[in-house]
């Protein structure tokens, strides 16, 4: 998902000899964004449209290229907090789905494909590598953009290459794994105003059917026990890398609380006594303190006040500056 300032292009959209059937994409006005997010929070976008193909995407960009609108690319709406004032620009909802089997274990997957759908495909074919994604909402494009992950694994482990539309040239660019510059919950695409992910080539490997299902069941049970049953955006903050911490600080953290070289932020927030803290319709979850939930018609400001409270209290107690994993739009 990206928020992009408009770019004026000096090149034609299509070559003279390139066949194309033009379909005028419908651009709607004043569409409330809350239903398109997992948080169920967010005001209206000035303009909104849904695309299902590269042709759709190019067509809508052609329609608005003379405007000065900002653009935001929306996937599954997870990991996102939108202002109640909405977004002054165009939101493009990526519904570009598709899972194409290239060869054994390798797929080309459209950016709008739900992770759950891709996981079901890998399980059906006894492939391993995506079990960590069970229960995680969102689309492939968003998962690649933010290098989503869980249980010590991340999207980057499966990526072979990524195709993205370059807004300066309106051409599709292929990014090899190293070009994506994946880091913890980050990639070249996350805060880059130039590229829109359209698909990714992913590699999975043959696994033992029983073992794959056993791992899935284990992760599903863990998620059920700690993921709150209210609308949320997922984990609010990035976990803390142990390498960045002093020896003295690490001595204060129980070893069983560290996972994959990281200290869960939920543990730090809980130690500050904030688990279950509510501000109007928002709550720091009693089940998982790195989740803020919308339990009763929460507003953007309700959530922001809890985010600020958590950051201030963790800074005061542990002298750690928390960094948001969720993204903001429209404020």
Per-chain topology:
Blueprint: E1 3-4, E2 28-32, E3 44-51, H1 54-64, E4 70-74, E5 80-82, E6 87-94, E7 99-103, E8 106-110, H2 115-124, E9 127-128, H3 140-145, E10 149-150, E11 153-154, E12 159-166, E13 171-176, E14 195-203, E15 205-206, H4 209-226, E16 232-235, E17 240-241, H5 247-250, E18 262-263, H6 265-271, E19 278-279, E20 282-284, E21 291-294, H7 300-318, E22 327-329
Parallel strand pairs: 3-6, 4-6, 5-22
Antiparallel strand pairs: 1-4, 2-3, 7-8, 8-14, 9-15, 10-11, 12-13, 12-14, 16-21, 17-18, 19-20, 20-21
| Share of β-strand residues | 25-35%
Tally of separate helices: 7
Contiguous low-pLDDT stretches (5 residues minimum) are 1-22
Helix content: 10-25%
User: How many domain units?
Assistant: 3
Tell me the structural class.
alpha+beta
User: What's the CATH topology label of the largest domain?
Assistant: Uridine Diphospho-n-acetylenolpyruvylglucosamine Reductase, domain 3
What composes the largest sheet? 5 strands, mixed
The rounded distance between the terminal residues' Cα atoms is: 16 Å
Structural shape: globular
Q: What is the CA-atom radius of gyration, in angstroms?
A: 21 Å
Read across the widest sheet, the strand sequence of neighbours is: 1-4-6-3-2
Overall residue-averaged pLDDT value = 89
Number of strands: 22
CATH architecture of the largest domain: 2-Layer Sandwich
What would you call the quaternary organization? single chain
CATH class wording of the largest domain: Alpha Beta
